[in-house]
Amino acid sequence: MGLMSGMLMGIVFGIALMAGWQHMMRYRSNKRIAKAVDIKSLSSLNRDDLKKICGENFPEWISFPVFEQVKWLNKQLSKLWPFVADAAEAIIKDSVEPLLEEYRPPGITSMKFSKLSLGTVAPKIEGIRVQSLKNGQITMDIDLRWGGDPSIILAIEAALVASIPIQLKDLKVFTVVRAIFQLAEEIPCISAVVVALLAEPKPRIDYTLKAIGGSLTAIPGLSDMIDDTVTSIITDMLQWPHRIVVPIGGIPVDTSELELKPQGNLTVTVLRANNLKNKELIGKSDPYVVVYIRPLFKVKTKVIDNNLNPVWNETFELIAEDKETQSLIVEVFDEDVGQDERLGIAKLPLIELEAEKSKEIELRLLPSLDMLKIKDKKDRGTLTIQVQPHIVINTAFTHRTGKLYNAPNTGRETNLNLNISSSLTLCSIFLS
Question: Is the whole model's pTM more than 0.70, yes or no?
Answer without folding.
Answer: no
